[in-house]
Structure formats: C-alpha cells, structure tokens
What does this fold into?
Amino acid sequence: MTIHLRRAVPADATAVGDICYRSFKAVAEAHGFAPDFPSPDAAAALLGGMIEHAEIFGAVAEIDGRVVGSNFLDERNAVSGIGPITVDPAHQNGGTGRALMQAVMRRSSDRGFPGMRLVQAGYHNRSLALYLGLGFDVREHLACVQGPAIATTGTARTVRVATTRDLPACDRLCMRAHGHDRAGELADAVAQGAARVTVRDGRVTGYATAVAFFGHAVGETNDDLQALIADAASFPGPGFLLPTSNGELLRWCLREGLRIVHTMTLMTIGLYNRPAGAWLPSVVY
It folds into this structure.
C-alpha cells in the first residue's frame, strides 16, 4: 500500500470534509463524546475555506487514487499552527497520519518558522503518542467550554468591534503574552468583522478573533477575557478553549452557567514562551 501526498485543491473539499466528519465522529463517540463537527457539509465548508486561503497549506493523502486523509498548516502568523488532521477510519493506524504530519512539519521547517503548535483531543491517546513520537512537548491542559451566552460581566471594560487601527495594540498584547504576534490571523478576523477588543480608559487591553473553537484571545487580565466571553452571542463549534491552569477564569465560567464538554492538550515544537497575562488558544493554537 503506497501513500501518495499532494497539495490540496478546492475540488478536494467534499472528500476531505466527509473524512474529517467521520474521523472525528468515530473517535469522539468511541470515548463517549459528541463529534466536533455537526455534519460532513460543515466540515467541508471549513476545510474548503482553508484550502482556498493563500496562507494556509493543505496536504492530501491518497491511496490507489482515492483521498484518505488531509492535514493543514496555518502560515499566517510568526509560529505555524497544525491541523485539523484527519484520516479515513478505514485507513487509520497504517502510517497515513504520520505521513501527513511529517509533510506539514517539513514545510514549516523549510519555510523557516521557529516553532509549531497543535491542539490534541485529550481522550485520544493514539494521537498523543504520535505527536510525542514526532518530538512535540505537552505545554497546557485545556478545557473546551460551552453553554448559553452570558448576559453580564461585572467589569469596567468596554467591548467593541476591532478595526485596523487596533492592530498594533493587539499585536503588542499578543507579543507580551506569547513572545510573538498572531498578526495574520488577527488581520483576517478584523477584515471579516469578527474580532473584538476590550477598552479601558481609552486603551485597548484585550482582543479576541472570536470566542470559539477556531478563535483565540489575549488580555492583560482575566477581566478582559471575562468581558470578551460575556460579549459573545454564542460560542461557535464545540466551544472555546481555556487553559485549566487559569483556575480563576475557569471557575468564573462555571459560575456563569458554562460547562466543560471535554479536554484538550496544547503541544509544541520549537519556540515557546510560557504565556503571561490572560489568554485563550484556538484549536490550531
């Protein structure tokens, strides 16, 4: 059995979306959890958008001319982000996942990224073992949090839509928290009208590309993140990710009626600075 790797093209969206849905569904339900994607169409829409994005690299695996898996490398930021990676359940444990991981890792290295990030489902021991074997280190234990919108914050922060004028201040916040910015991802969110900032005394003190599975946030303090979470009308996808090491913020979320639906693990290779301040990662870090 020969695995052939190639770059993803828009025509792959339906096939890789179906595999993504079935793959995540099989693993989640085997462990008693709900799938991350509600339907093959939802997965195809997400992965199709990633394939068409000029700064996201998609790799497809084929066996005998049939698509059996895919993986992605987010190249918008100073540090690359890996995922989602999925393999057809009928072809798992045969080396396809390792080949897809090695392909995007080589590309990240060849393009000079100082580090790579990924987020792994906490209940999936096989993927944890694969990533450890490839050299990734465990950095944070994350809670995936979901529930009804929160009506009030009890903070002195104002939340408003982010504009291009806010980009330098937001990049400085991210640099202070992580040692690098996420400028490309943030610029996309601002252009889409999705990003929000917190403001106190006329100064930007936090931002979120989205309080969602594929969004991230940074704030000077937990008050900033509380304001951003409370401002969200909903939490798209399975929920948003929150470091369990931030017990204060996690307890606040639970008091406000949110719940932990499952846990995940942040893993890295290369450049990593232990975050300072308050932060929420995305599923691709």
